[in-house]
Amino acid sequence: PLREMKHATLVLVILSTTHAAIVRETLVIEEWVADYLRPVASTRGVFPWQQSAARKEPFAIAESQRSVKYMINGSYPGPTLRASENDTLVITVVNRLFSEATTIHWHGIHPLRQPYMDGARDVTQAPILPGQSFTYRFAAYPPGTHYYHSHMDAVQGARGVRGPIVVQRPSDPVKEEFGYDEDLVVFMADEWRDPSACLKLEGAMPGNDVCADIRHASFNGVFGNGSKAYPFPRVSVKAGKCYRMRWIMAGSNTENYQITVSGHNMTLVTVDGGYDVQPVQVRRFNLHLGERVDVILCADQTPGNYLIHAQYDYACALTAGHFVPPGFNPVPTCDFYAYLHYEGAAEVPSDLRGNGGGAHPRPVSGADFDLTKPEGYQVTRPRVPQPEPNEPDVRYTINLGLLGPTYSEATDQPLRKGRWYMDVAEHDPPRSYELPTTPLYMTKGKCGAERTPVIDVPETARVVEVVVQNLSPNAHVLHMHGMPFKVINVANFTSWCGLDKTACFGLPWWDPTTLLDKCPRRLRTPGDPHHKNLVLGGYWGCAYDAATDRATQNLQSPLIKDSFQLWQRSWAVLRFEATRPGYWYFHCHETQHLMLGLQTVFNVLPSQQPPVPADVPTSAEHFCPTVNQGPWGS
Description:
The protein is mainly beta. It is 6% helix and 34% strand. It has 8 helices and 36 strands. It is globular. It starts with 10 loop residues before the first strand and ends with a strand.
């Protein structure tokens, strides 16, 4: 059976006046040789022939399944970190990797008073070297469902350096309304035998990886296909209880999973961990990379095993029976399964028919919550809407695009061609992100950061508007560190450039037919202004036009997020409040896009940024000394 996700062993020191606590945890990162599809899961029977799914020693694992996993405290996912809102988290990360440095980012956590503890490599700290340790200290805020992962090279997470975070709210309106019995974390990911080969570089078509888009999905660290060696994962519930299911999409390359649970209605209550919404019943929700979704599910059906279906719908067109375009790899499957298992019911079946009550589940009803489509933003709204002013204090347009030339020869230097960028529109040429020699927070961006795009927000600005334009045929999933944003407008492009209307993906910006008429020629913007016909002119986007597009913006009750998907050739308009001092990363969460430069940084309120403690790792300090350093451990 699927290993139950164990609570981290926490030491709580209660502070007498505030009822806050100090929550201490040690995370030890080590290299293990394991079956990469179920690194720690073990299903043993009584008889010798019932050992197919037992955990095996490294030498007993088939070579095709044997891989190096980086596990935290010997587990995958890493231990669940639990705290209450505004507790102080004191987390020591011990790096026992043989030859790799690391950092840990607290995805969804906003270290308001400790911005240097965000864990972003060479933005807020230098890496923790092999054999060394570092103690992170920050407040547990905002409350909700979050996760932690390596922010070193985007591949360490794929090897296993990731785990859940749950921050409870003392006075929780969701708990008060629904009175659910328990939390239930479902940690979704994609699994790779050799992520370094598959996810660092791009394939024959820029924007796509070297390997297939997906081969295996995992539920709480376990892949299953119903075979004896890989039985379907199970998510266990007790009959009669109601659960706050905290779904986390912590993958590496897979952009999303469409999630359904047979026989059980779900009520959507929270998005991206800390942002409660007006409760709405859903029959399916789309969980994008980096996103979190909380739903209320009651185990109120006849006991049995009910199918959970996670579909990577973007990859379905690359499965057998479909035309696979040149430059793409065929995908073995886009459908992955687990079972909602009622404790005491029969064992999980080896097929997709369910058993007990799950053999004949009742129909489910409700909305489709899918933020790929603009109508998804109308399904619900914040529980407490936060209206926006008509005009921001400052406005930026950030373009996402591909710079030429692309790879053409086997001898081309890796990571130098076909670079992505995420830069303000007025910067010419656009800058692909390159690591500063010394963390930005230490130098305030004044040294060793000449090729690093940093957006210096004026200190007089409070409301910041960002028009994000995707000038490529690839979707991107973007994540903001340190602060949430409101999605006030999105392009309605899926109606003519969606999964079922794929002709626009391969057409050049200058296409003379009527297929692209919904994007006027004047708005078709090549991603590389100096190589407009890069890859036959196919890398372009349809620009935002304020004169016509402002009519669809929502200033009264926009959804609040920290991660979202930006569709192909599309745009979105975001707002955030520049009230949190720090250097805040804004980047694509797909592994190879991050590696190739699709990232930028907002510099907010530099005059109010607190001194960085002397123990926070830095680098090249003999060339770029720390500007404002505080005492060790402060």
